[in-house]
Design goal:
With 203 residues, the protein is an alpha+beta fold. The protein contains 6 helices and 6 strands. Strand 1 and strand 2 form a beta hairpin.
Length: 203
């Protein structure tokens, strides 16, 4: 599987067609390349369960079109405060995770972008592959605790490796109530990192 597939404009076009799941009139022209613009129906969901079902069907249809040997299932249907969580498992799972979970982040972004075209005002649909995010969260929380101990003992700030915004947030949240250390994000763009340092009143 060529991971550049995720950046191909026609991938997004095909993805929207899968999500719509209705007959759509279109010509070869799309993304401003002439022809008639595609028409996609927009709906408003009555429940979180409805969103979970639509997302699940769309993801499995997309996975099938991509030729991946994986299957999506619903872990959590969602509620008024939280969106659904969809699990993906199978032989080709690693292809959807990518380096440091970057491909998974892109996949989840595109799924939600596509859902925005047919569902109004929906919460974020979270996609996890082989419980990668769950494992990564626990790993980052452990890392945060270990780095906090080192900073507390040594007194010097420690800057972690570059992380995605969601991973930096896990570090920040893990140490938000720590009595001795605090955190801040430093750097620019994809190179932003979390720095762990003593609180001014820390000991």
């Amino acid at each position: 599987m060529d991971l550049n597939f995720f950046s191909n404009q026609y991938f997004f076009f095909a993805f929207i067609m899968v999500l719509a799941a209705v007959p759509v009139g279109f010509s070869a022209g799309f993304f401003g390349i002439g022809g008639e613009q595609a028409r996609v129906s927009v709906t408003r969901l009555a429940s979180a369960q409805g969103l979970a079902s639509i997302a699940l069907g769309a993801i499995n249809s997309l996975i099938l079109k991509m030729g991946l040997s994986v299957l999506a299932t619903i872990r959590f249907s969602g509620n008024e405060e939280e969106g659904p969580v969809i699990d993906v498992q199978g032989e080709d799972s690693a292809l959807l995770i990518g380096k440091r979970g970057e491909t998974l982040q892109s996949f989840q972004y595109l799924v939600n972008l596509g859902l925005n075209k047919i569902v109004q005002s929906h919460p974020v649909v979270t996609i996890d592959v082989e419980k990668y995010k769950e494992r990564r969260t626990k790993s980052l929380e452990t890392l945060a605790s270990r780095m906090a101990d080192r900073v507390k003992k040594g007194g010097k700030p420690i800057t972690l490796e570059p992380m995605s915004p969601s991973e930096r947030r896990i570090i920040h949240m893990a140490l938000s109530d720590h009595p001795s250390v605090t955190t801040e994000s430093v750097g620019q763009g994809s190179e932003r990192q979390v720095s762990v340092m003593l609180r001014r009143d820390g000991s």
